[in-house]
Request: fold
Amino acid sequence: MTLDFAATGRPLRPGLSTQDVNILTPGSVYGDRINFVDMRFAKILRFGTTRTNVGLDLFNVNTPTAYETVYDPATNGARWMQPTAALLPRLVRVNVQFDF
Reply:
């Protein structure tokens, strides 16, 4: 939260026109639960004495991981607690493992 003299009623530190103040203790507010879907499709292929495990992993998630923590009184907190970062919405990973 950014405050000025009119909001606090006391002078700010020398050289500052505004000052940021934490209105919440760290770790007191958390975002929504992360719902994460993970699917794996794999097939074992055998060629003589070697074994190959070929797999495809699918991830589907779109969950915020960081939020705007500054409350701006000029905008009445319009951006406060808005997501600023999110997990990748879709991810595909190909795996190949050779055993010999």
